[in-house]
Amino acid sequence: MNHRHLLPNEIDLLVDGEAGFGVAPLRAHIQECPECRERLEDARVVVDALESLPHFAPDSRLADRVMAQVPVFVPAHVAARDTVRRWLPQSAAARVAAIAVAGVSAFTLTIGMIWLALQGDAVVFVTGLLGDRVRTAVTSAARDLAVALLGDAALSALQGLGAVGASLLFLAFLLGAVGTIAGIRRLAVASRRA
Amino acid sequence: MPRALDLANLPDADVVALALEGREAAHRELIRRYERPVFSLVFRMVRDRELAEDLTQDTFVKVLSHLDRYRADFKFSSWLFKIANNVAIDHLRRRQLDTVSMHGSPNAVTVEAQESTRFDVADAAENALEEMEAKELGSAIERAIAQLRPEYRSCIMLRHVEGRSYEEIASTLDLPLGTVKTYIHRARHELRRALEHTRE
Asked: Which of B23, B103, B170, B194 has the fewest CB atoms below 10 angstroms from its CB?
């Protein structure tokens, strides 16, 4: 038997359950030396007591108190990603279908816009043609009405004045309308008194 | 966003990543995982429940407010314990509480407060004698821990209550590996001496 007793750090090695080349002789010594065996047992009692110590529980409101002081910030890219995810279906199959429909719709719209852009000249021509026809029809109807009311000679004189003439015509019409309405009202009031 | 049950199964690094995305549930999961170990470490360091609550709260506020500083190649729990230990040690240094009365918190000013801050740790045992011995040992070990230097206390708690390796403890406390081994060896020696009477 090796008469050198184990050093404190060697006892620690055995307590910690270390394995390795240098540990085997220590274990062999323990088998043969009651004093070192007792020292090892004392050390293990302390370690066992330490490892049996419980965890203490803090107040149940600890998390709430902590979170009241911790600023929780959602980065912009995470917020954007969350917004997109809210619009997507939950299941993978539904997501694939939604993406496929969106893709087809986008493709169709793009083709349509390109076609329209290529047909742009024809669209502009047709729109202008329709506008001309409407303007011609309205002007003709207004002229016919003015001739019926004023006669050719008066209309020709007003046309000669241009914009001033049109304004005078309109003003005359307005005054006539207001005067007529006022006269009719006076007659109605007078007839009621009578 | 993973559900609450899924969060519990995620490793720390993943929960931290979710917390950095602004998920409050991830922050709360980190608190749930480590509130007991952190509180236990701090409580055994400062020996005052109310103070330990405040220091534990400070620890989590510091950690969660600076999650962007956490490096994934370092264990989250080690980083958390490092901050908890620093918070406790800083307080002890300010208050110069290297030794603590076994009769309760030094901050306790009434009999009721002293009683509430004494350590009486219950332990399950098979018969009355063993239960009595276990209680005595349990309380004796807590009192003996209270007599240790704060640095020894941190090391012995992290080693045997939290089950950390020597290398993790050295990394957590920013100490050389040899120093950690020395502190633990001395702590065990002092605890053995303090508990000798219970071995009769």
From this structure: B103
Of B27, B40, B123, the CB nearest to A56: B40
Per-residue pLDDT at B111: 54
d(CA A48, CA A11): 15
Are both A166 and A141 inside the same structural domain?
no
First to last CA, chain B: 58
Q: Say how far apart CA B141 and CA B97 lie, in whole Å.
A: 19
As for how many domains chain A has, the answer is 3
**B123/A52 touch (CB, cutoff 8 Å), yes or no:** yes
Tokens of A44: 């293990």
For A170, the domain range is 161-194
Fold of the domain built from segment(s) B1-98: Rna Polymerase Sigma Factor; Chain: A (1.10.1740)
Q: pTM for the complete prediction?
A: 0.62
pLDDT in tens, A8-34: 888 988 998 877 778 888 988 999 999
Q: Do B31 and A66 touch (CB under 8 A)?
A: yes
SS (H, E, C) chain A: CCCCCCCHHHHHHHHCCCCCCCHHHHHHHHHHCHHHHHHHHHHHHHHHHHHCCCCCCCCCCHHHHHHCCCCCCCCHHHHHHHHHHHHCCCCHHHHHHHHHHHHHHHHHHHHHHHHHHHCHHHHHHHHHHHHHHHHHHHHHHHHHHHHHHHCHHHHHHHHHHCHHHHHHHHHHHHHHHHHHHHHHHHHHHHHHHC
Instruction: For chain B, say whether A150 makes contact (Cβ under 8 Å).
Output: no
Domain ranges of chain B: 1-98
| B74 torsion bin: left (phi>0), alpha (psi -120 to 50), beta (else) | beta
Residue A70 has pLDDT above 80, yes or no: yes
User: How high is the ipTM of this complex?
Assistant: 0.74
Would the CB atoms of B27 and A70 count as touching at under 8 Å? yes
- Flag whether residue A9 sits within 8 Å of chain B, measured between CB atoms: yes
Crossing angle for the helix pair B150-160 and B177-194, to the nearest 10 degrees: 90
Q: pLDDT tens for residues A34-45?
A: 999 999 998 999
Task: State whether A43 and A14 are in the same domain.
Answer: yes
